[in-house]
Amino acid sequence: MSQTRMTKQRMVILEELRKVDTHPTADEIYAMVRSRIPRISLGTVYRNLDLLAESGEILRLEAAGTQKRFDGNTMHHQHVRCIRCGRVGDVMHPLDVPQPERAAAKGFTILTARVEFEGICDHCTAHS
Amino acid sequence: MSQTRMTKQRMVILEELRKVDTHPTADEIYAMVRSRIPRISLGTVYRNLDLLAESGEILRLEAAGTQKRFDGNTMHHQHVRCIRCGRVGDVMHPLDVPQPERAAAKGFTILTARVEFEGICDHCTAHS
DNA sequence: CTTGTTGCAAACTCTTTGCACTTAG
DNA sequence: CTAAGTGCAAAGAGTTTGCAACAAG
């Protein structure tokens, strides 16, 4: 079994990330951490973010895959994404979902739901 | 004002996308379209998917930006994303959101919500 | 005709990885 | 000690873009 060592790098990445509520990207974290460990590499930041996310110490938003997906159906409906392979399906009646037994999404076993709101931040409202 | 021309390429991309409900990625669409227009380029596929999504003829899933974001707060909470700049904020009491006036997400004006379910598709269940 | 669109290839952005060296435990 | 982790640089994956030729309206 592979152990996990609390290196200075991992420690600082975790500390810096916990200081803010801005949901920074990897390169933003890289910049934050570099003020304390100037010679840290971006690769190390990525590796540690992975490890920290796997161990549940931090969250990675948009768990969704790296590729964008398109849908020819523009009717209002929601999606299910397979956490293993990334395959995406449609959910037609979201309100039926709470009871996992009634498969609202055919072909998928739903485990959790994430709600993502979209809007405009005050900063952008001000500068429009 | 720039016009928009219905080229054979754009037509076929739209037709192929409407044939399926698999939410294909750009390169999957590229493969589908190439069976009908062998010399089409991947760049053309990307350009047309952009145009079609902008005109509302198709949907682009995960409107979210291209970079992954991380969160040091592992408590259960949801996110708001600015559709203009990509900035992400926290939503603490999702149930308050329906009334836009009560700003559940400070610093953001919420426009819409997307629910994304996560689960495991039958294909992956079978092969585990 | 005029200007939007295409194919191609090069450029870009973000993320991952191989390797020799370093270091936590 | 020794295996996990690091820095660096190169490689990958996915997407975007400049440009000359092409074609829709």
TrEMBL record, chains A, B:
Binds 1 Mn(2+) or Fe(2+) ion per subunit. Signal peptide: none annotated. InterPro entries: FUR, Fur_C, WH-like_DNA-bd_sf, WH_DNA-bd_sf. Keywords: DNA-binding, Iron, Metal-binding, Repressor, Transcription, Transcription regulation, Zinc. Zn(2+) binds at C82, C85, C121, C124. The keyword Nucleotidyltransferase does not apply. One of its GO terms (biological process) is negative regulation of DNA-templated transcription. This is Transcriptional regulator, Fur family. It comes from the Bacteria.
